[in-house]
Specification:
353 residues; alpha/beta; six-stranded parallel beta sheet; 10 helices; 15 strands; globular; binds nicotinamide-adenine-dinucleotide
Length: 353
């Protein structure tokens, strides 16, 4: 069987997770790397044995040997690169957030329909083993009707700087960067109900706190703390047409005592925690039970989840599987994220038809 040839566009931090997982998949040939920063592209190509490097992604699109691409660039470039790839006959795995505007989201969806090529959105937490274990319980109705979900993803100090904090390139701050993961995994586990209304708040109170010493944090490949045009905190209440609601709060920085991640769902027959550790809460013979699954990892395992996401994408490209994170879900998630920003800007709840 001939291997599928992959191009990776954007050779910064997260490309390493994609490249590593492709390298572990024997149905794949890692063929090309593209980055605006030529040295970065060449270094990754050398490390992973890719035969071609590109600086301009349009040139990569003309390379008919490439079957599929991973897009690991700044958020504002995802849509144009994905559309160009689909139009040149390539399947696409695009990092989250899928894009930064509804217009671009619809254009991506149209292009998938028009070309018949595959697009998978990098909602990596959907592919994590803790998510998939819980999904099985939900499908078997162990939680009953899920009517409330709650996510918190708080960094007390963690604005990555560079393009992440430049709203033109990122489209927003912690909401679009880390909030997207926790909102999406809950929405996926809730069965992707249709959004009815959103009430959100964003705050720019603390800035990026570049003055802080003696505490290290994640920084972008091209770290630059001097520009910061994104929110440092966001919260929202999302209402769904089926009556369920989702409450979320996220931050790049906050005067919190510690970082916190928590992802929880509550239903009529039981509840569940995906983070900080997989747990299921139920009731039997008038007694409440907290069930502790005995599995290799009860929390988000970064390496496992990326491997599962990439392996799944490769099988999608080979026509053996349907993606777990299709473009339609990317469109809906763009609607949720844009809706939170719109509600915060207008200072009122917004409604969808
Ligand atoms: N799934 C996850 O858990 C996860 C984690 C981190 C980042 N991400 C996403 O991955 C993407 C990249 O993030 P990162 O942390 O790797 O950023 P990064 O700054 O480390 O790397 C981005 C790279 O893209 C390159 N680039 C930008 N525009 C380009 C273009 N038009 N053509 C070619 N190269 C281009 C930059 O030169 C840079 O090397 C973002 O969309 C981010 O949201 C996802």
């Amino acid at each position: 069987m001939s291997k599928i040839k992959i191009g990776v566009i954007g050779a910064g931090s997260i490309s390493e997770a994609h490249l590593n997982a492709y390298a572990n998949n024997d149905k794949v040939e890692l063929y090309a790397i593209c980055d605006l920063n030529e040295e970065r592209a060449k270094a990754k190509a050398e490390k992973y044995g890719a035969s071609k490097t590109y600086v301009d992604y349009h040139d990569l699109m003309n390379d008919q040997d490439i079957d599929a691409v991973s897009i690991c660039t700044w958020n504002n470039t995802h849509a144009d690169i994905a559309i160009a790839a689909l139009n040149s006959g390539k399947n696409v795995l695009v990092e989250k957030p899928m894009t930064t505007s509804m217009e671009k989201a619809y254009e991506m969806e149209e292009t998938v329909k028009k070309t018949g090529k595959k697009l998978q959105v990098g909602f990596v937490r959907r592919y994590a083993s803790n998510t998939q274990i819980l999904k099985k319980f939900i499908e078997e109705d162990d939680l009953g009707e899920i009517y409330y979900a709650k996510a918190t993803c708080i960094r007390r100090l963690g604005n990555p700087g560079g393009w992440f904090s430049d709203i033109e390139r990122s489209g927003g701050g912690p909401l679009i960067d880390i909030g997207v993961h926790v909102i999406d995994v809950l929405w996926y586990l809730m069965g992707c109900p249709k959004v009815k209304s959103i009430s959100g708040n964003t705050y720019n109170k603390l800035g990026n706190r570049k003055n802080i010493k003696n505490l290290s944090f994640y920084q972008a490949a091209d770290y630059d703390p001097d520009k910061n045009t994104v929110e440092d905190m966001a919260n929202a209440m999302i209402r769904f047409e089926n009556g369920a609601s989702l409450l979320v709060d996220v931050s790049f920085t906050l005067h919190a005592k510690q970082d916190e991640i928590s992802v929880k769902l509550y239903g009529t027959k039981g509840g569940a925690e995906v983070e900080p550790s997989l747990a299921i809460v139920t009731e039997k013979y008038d007694t409440i039970l907290n069930l502790a699954p005995q599995v290799d990892s009860t929390t988000f395992d970064f390496g496992q989840a990326f491997q599962a996401e990439i392996d799944h994408f490769v099988d999608v490209c080979l026509g053996e599987k349907e993606t777990l994170s299709p473009v339609a879900d990317g469109v809906e998630m763009t609607k949720i994220l844009s809706g939170i920003y719109e509600s915060a800007e207008k200072g009122k709840e917004i409604y969808f038809d």
